[in-house]
Request: fold
Amino acid sequence: MTLGVMWFKRDLRVFDHQALVEAARNRHLLPLYVYEPELVRAPDCAPQHIGFINECLAELDQALTGRGSPLQIQHGEITSVLKRVLDSFGTFTLYSHEETGNALSTARDLRVADWCRANGIRWKESPSNGVVRRFNPEDDWATEWQKRMRKPPLPAPDFLGTPPGILTPNGPMTPYQLGINSADKSQRQRGGRKQALLIMKTLFNEPLTPESGSRLSPYIAYGALSVREVAHKIWKTRADILAMTQEAQPAEMLDSLQSLESRLRSRCQFIQQLESEPRIETMSLRDGVELDREPQFNQDYFDRWRDGETGFPLVDAAMKMLAATGAINFPLRALLINFSSCQLWNHWREPALHLAREFIDYEPGVHYPQVQLHSGLIDSDRQQFTNPIRLAQSLDEDGAFVKRWLPQLEQVPTAYIFKPWTMPLVLQQEIGVLIGKDYPTPVVDHLE
Ligand SMILES: Cc1cc2nc3c(=O)[nH]c(=O)nc-3n(C[C@H](O)[C@H](O)[C@H](O)COP(=O)(O)OP(=O)(O)OC[C@H]3O[C@@H](n4cnc5c(N)ncnc54)[C@H](O)[C@@H]3O)c2cc1C
Reply:
């Protein structure tokens, strides 16, 4: 074996990385990351994604350099970058993980496969996480998932083949250099494996609540951590608990472990669905159900929803938090898309793209099915309308969350905090919060 090119995509780690383990058997190794203009300029990409990726790349480069072959970072259409590698260093084997991405990355992979065939290059893709390529629907997916996850995570290779040379120019680029003019989010989670491991270390100090979650999803989305690493941490913690006497076992913790394991499995199962049905990204899975909505897209409603100015405090606070941090929990994600699709009656596609840009952990295979599910497009038996006032009363009893993200409502008494438009005018004047001036009137006057 001579030269291996390890093409990193959404798998930015050296641990538990089957493709890297195989690539490391080559005498020479070129670890490669490519900023691809068509993906960077796509409507689901945003500066916070690039910022997060760059933080992961910096740590990945350290880990690779310490093993003998630094990361080489290129900018350009992938097949032209691969051609440059071929012209500079001669023939090679290409390694990567099996990516289940959006329509653009899938088309890009097909192009790479064609290019490899035309140039006599072998491309070896390895499974990653729990998604099964060419899955036979007659097999039991959950059993296959368990089989993959139960295998111990792979150690990182100790040594990598020496680099064949350096491609120039080479190095990380800022969102601005990549042509994105909007700003990154200053309050977002930092990228990189170190942060991910810090979270893992303290993950089970106390039980996770469905509202808080593990905060691991961006690290899993960009592959700084593998799903299998998290699954093994869950199983090890569970085994430690079960080794305690029955009375000492914290039942809540066992539930919390169970629930995180099932979320990890769902994650892979959702992505598996996109692998088998790529149209989920653009088309409703329930044929015909959405067709009446697209022509009547209400731009004003969309703008108010996107800017957190619907006049419904929980919706607006969730959007403001998302704009600042790039993360909100599951119930608030579900509320935002449900409000847009079922209360504002807007088609889901544009709002889904807005959320995709906003979420640091954007993962097409989880995102689009979730959007459709909470838009009432998949499961016709489910309750389709989430009432933002009732939800606020259960999630944010005293309105502290709403007041944190909508400080202009600080003085509003708790009795009115989730429907401030019902405050008598004298009270509005007394506390200095005029509805329609200091905070918007509701965007719609009906609520299902
Ligand atoms: C409209 C909508 C869009 C969403 N878009 C995304 C997305 O782009 N990327 C994403 O990772 N998650 C998405 N989710 C699922 C979920 O809300 C987030 O994964 C979760 O809030 C992340 O929090 P956490 O980091 O604390 O992970 P945890 O809640 O601790 O979960 C751990 C892992 O399980 C996965 N997971 C969690 N909840 C679910 C779920 N309901 N279905 C499938 N997998 C799940 C996550 O990917 C995460 O990696 C979306 C949910 C909704 C309602």
Observations:
- The longest strand covers residues 28-35.
- Residues 213-217, 220-221, 260, 263-264, 266-267, 270, 329-330, 333-334, 337, 359, 361-363, 366-367, 370-371, 374 surround flavin-adenine dinucleotide (CB under 6 Å).
